[in-house]
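Input sequence (269 aa), recorded before submission:
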Amino acid sequence: MKIATVGKGGSGKTTLAGILARILAETSNKMLAVDGDPNPNLALTLGISPEAADDICYIPPNIMQLAQGADGSRTLNMTLSEKEVIRRYAAHAPGGIDLLVMGKPADGSAGSGCMCASHRAVRGLITKMSGYSAHTITDMEAGLEHLKRGTARNVDLMLVVTEPYYRSLEAAARTWRLAAELDIQQIRVVANKVRNREDRAAITEFCQRHDMTIIGEVPQDEAFLEAERTARAPIDHAPDSPGVRAVRALASEIRALEATMNVNSTECV
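Predicted structure, C-alpha cell format:
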C-alpha cells in the first residue's frame, strides 16, 4: 500500500509520517519511506540522528527515465535496479525502514533550476518501488505544487493533515479537490493538533460541509515539541504519549481500510 501525507506547512504531516512509518514497520521486516519535500525533515522523525541525516545522499533526478512507446504512451523507467537504488541512496532508520530523499535542482543552489525532474523521480519511485515492502510512506512537499505536478498521482491512500484553523482547513479542502482530480483511490483527513472539543467540532463541521472523510484524530502533544527540541524521533522520545497512541489508532484504521482496497501498482505519467 502506497501512502502519502500532505498538508499546509506546519500542519504536522512530517511528524505524522515518521511516527506512522515506525508503527507500520513493527509488523514488517522492511519498510520504504520517501521524503518528497525539497526541504527534507523526515529523517529525524524516523529516528535517524542529525549527523547521519546530514550525510544522506539525495535521489538524482535521472534515476527515472521517461520513455515513449510506439503508440504514444509514456512510462517512467528506473535507470538502476531496486537493489542498487537502496544500496546507493537509502538511509537506514530504526525498524528496518529505508529512507530515500528527494533530490535538488541541478547544482543545488538558489536560482539554479526547477524541481520538475525531481518531482518526476519521486513519482516514478513511488510506483516502481511499490513491491519493495508492504507499505511505502511518502512525505510530500508542503502546499499544492506536488499535486499540480502529479507527484503523488500513484499513491493508494492520501492522508490530508489539517489543523483546526481556517487557513489550514481551506488548504485541506483544496488539496482534497486536486487529489480527487488525480483519481487517487482513497483520500482521508487526519485532524491534527486537536486541543479540545471546540477544535474537534471545527474540523468535523468543516469536513462534513465539504464531504471530506476523517480517518483519525491526533491531539496537541507537548511530547512532540520536546522531541523536536532534542532532535529525537517522537516515538523514541515518548512512545506512550497521547499523540503516539493516537497514531497507533490511525494505523489500525489504515490497516482496516487496506483490507477493503484493491491495491495495485498502476502507473500514470
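Checked by second reader. The longest strand covers residues 186-194.
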